[in-house]
Amino acid sequence: MRVMGVDPGLTRCGLSLIEGGAGRSVIALDVDVVRTPADMDLAQRLLRIAEAAEYWLDTHRPDVVAIERVFAQHNVRTAMGTAQAGGVIALAAARRGIDVCFHTPSEVKAAVTGNGSADKAQVTAMVMRILGLQTAPTPADAADALALGICHCWRAPMIARMAQAEAMAAEQKRKYEARLAEERKTRAAAAKKLDSATKLKARKEAGAR
């Protein structure tokens, strides 16, 4: 499975390509950071990010795109920019029929380090260890993008099992509701038939009198 990990951001947007093998085996195939200047028009910044993402999607053809979900940030403007950057990449993937999955920062940290509250230094150190890198990916956005790809490779089986369980639950609910509807229909028909028979009997008795 090839996963394109995305650490979204307007100033720096990390992109990575991770290939997952048997078990927890993962290999880094590529990593980059797209930069846009703060004084550039917002639409142009998003366009630059979208174009870079589209190039990656068309060149690497990932099976899935894993994007960090904007969970909570004190800086509303930064949060909006992060969400917008992630949004244009998700749209580009969707247009190509590529699945998109979102992971919260704590999910990524927990998957890579075992601690959902790990700091960036710990995440970078574990990314280096997992991928066998001799030097730390820079800037930190590159390491975060790699971590997202690793996270999805390791969480994908669990996500698939959860989706299967939800689908089975939904199907069981549908069948249950259909059975209840059929039972109500049968009871209504029986009640109507009984009511008709009762009225017919009453008319016959009235006529006999």
TrEMBL record:
It is found in: Cytoplasm. InterPro entries: RNaseH-like_sf, RNaseH_sf, X-over_junc_endoDNase_RuvC. The keyword Zinc-finger does not apply. Gene3D superfamilies: Ribonuclease H-like superfamily/Ribonuclease H (3.30.420.10). Mg(2+) 1 binds at D7, D141. The active site is at D7, E68, D141. It catalyses: Endonucleolytic cleavage at a junction such as a reciprocal single-stranded crossover between two homologous DNA duplexes (Holliday junction). It is an enzyme of class 3 (hydrolase). Mg(2+) 2 binds at E68. Its cofactor is Mg(2+). Binds 2 Mg(2+) ion per subunit. Transmembrane segments: none annotated. The RuvA-RuvB-RuvC complex processes Holliday junction (HJ) DNA during genetic recombination and DNA repair. Endonuclease that resolves HJ intermediates. Cleaves cruciform DNA by making single-stranded nicks across the HJ at symmetrical positions within the homologous arms, yielding a 5'-phosphate and a 3'-hydroxyl group; requires a central core of homology in the junction. The consensus cleavage sequence is 5'-(A/T)TT(C/G)-3'. Cleavage occurs on the 3'-side of the TT dinucleotide at the point of strand exchange. NCBIfam families: ruvC. This is Crossover junction endodeoxyribonuclease RuvC.
